């Protein structure tokens, strides 16, 4: 796991966007398969990618994308559905084919059947080339709440009380927040060829420390990422504040940047 501690959101956004740009350019006309997250954490990176599309000719026309999750009960057009969120905040600003941006159907009669169909669809498309993730303050990724099997597949899940409280900022009242979602599983996410997780703020500090340095355990679902060979974590100083090895991560980055001559600032 490569941990990059950044000075501000702009620097983080550039580093995450660089990863997307590399994958998209490498795939060329074949098109990359992108794994997209909703929530506030990826927004600076999405804005940077929209800027690169508009001003630097970065094209997503050949790409396809799968979302991590969707609320059960919200139709695609609902203003808080993740189907809508990703269009409002990313997809409408780039040239990807809208029909190639796929999410679970939160209104399916049988969410378990829909979840299995969705999981199989990711595999049938050849898997995800680059998955972007946020992290919950309780250590969830997608909606894999504490207690999730490390081998879990896409399935219906019940949101933790803390997640409902965290996400109530998007809804008028806490009672409006759906209590269930269809979420990619930890096993599903782990099949992405590369993963970039981004987080900011003090309320993510414990989750980040557990994810990077804690024991692998269903208690902190993001620890499953320790088993993946290609994970980059981009965090600000506040989110990094409980990392015991923060000095080592900074030192590593200085050495790597010196040898590759890249630098990220
Ligand atoms: C979003 C998702 C969630 C969020 C997490 C962090 O699709 O699956 O795991 O990434 O809840 O949310 P923010 O970024 O809003 O703090």
Automatic annotation (TrEMBL):
Its EC number is 3.5.99.6. It catalyses: alpha-D-glucosamine 6-phosphate + H2O = beta-D-fructose 6-phosphate + NH4(+). The keyword Hydrolase applies. CDD domains: GlcN6P_deaminase. GO terms for molecular function: glucosamine-6-phosphate deaminase activity; identical protein binding. Keywords: Carbohydrate metabolism, Hydrolase. It is an enzyme of class 3 (hydrolase). Pathway: Amino-sugar metabolism; N-acetylneuraminate degradation; D-fructose 6-phosphate from N-acetylneuraminate: step 5/5. GO terms for cellular component: cytoplasm. GO terms for biological process: carbohydrate metabolic process; glucosamine catabolic process; N-acetylglucosamine catabolic process; N-acetylneuraminate catabolic process. Residues 9-226 form the Glucosamine/galactosamine-6-phosphate isomerase domain. It comes from the Bacteria. NCBIfam families: nagB, PRK00443.1-4. Catalyzes the reversible isomerization-deamination of glucosamine 6-phosphate (GlcN6P) to form fructose 6-phosphate (Fru6P) and ammonium ion. Belongs to the glucosamine/galactosamine-6-phosphate isomerase family. NagB subfamily. This is Glucosamine-6-phosphate deaminase. It comes from Candidatus Brachybacterium merdavium.
């Amino acid at each position: 796991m490569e941990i990059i501690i950044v000075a501000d959101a702009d620097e983080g956004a550039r580093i995450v966007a660089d990863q997307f740009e590399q994958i998209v350019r490498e795939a060329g006309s074949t098109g990359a398969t992108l794994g997209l997250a909703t929530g506030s954490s990826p927004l600076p990176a999405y804005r940077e990618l929209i800027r690169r599309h508009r001003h630097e000719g970065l094209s997503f026309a050949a790409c396809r994308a799968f979302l991590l999750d969707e609320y059960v009960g919200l139709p695609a057009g609902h203003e808080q559905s993740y189907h809508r969120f990703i269009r409002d905040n990313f997809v409408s600003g780039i040239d990807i084919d809208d029909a190639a941006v796929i999410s679970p159907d939160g209104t399916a009669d049988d969410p378990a059947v829909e979840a299995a169909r969705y999981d199989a669809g990711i595999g049938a498309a050849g898997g995800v080339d680059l998955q972007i993730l946020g992290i919950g303050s309780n250590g969830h990724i997608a909606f894999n709440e504490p207690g999730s099997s490390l081998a879990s597949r896409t399935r219906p899940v019940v949101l933790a009380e803390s997640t409902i409280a965290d996400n109530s900022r998007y809804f008028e009242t806490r009672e409006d927040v759906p209590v269930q979602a269809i979420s990619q599983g930890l096993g599903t996410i782990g099949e992405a060829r590369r993963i970039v997780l981004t987080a900011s703020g003090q309320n993510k500090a414990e989750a980040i420390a557990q994810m990077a340095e804690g024991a692998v355990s269903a208690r902190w679902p993001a620890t499953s990422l320790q088993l993946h060979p290609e994970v980059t974590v981009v965090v600000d100083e506040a989110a990094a504040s409980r990392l015991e090895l923060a000095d080592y991560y900074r030192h590593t980055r200085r050495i790597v940047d010196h040898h590759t001559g890249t630098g990220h600032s």
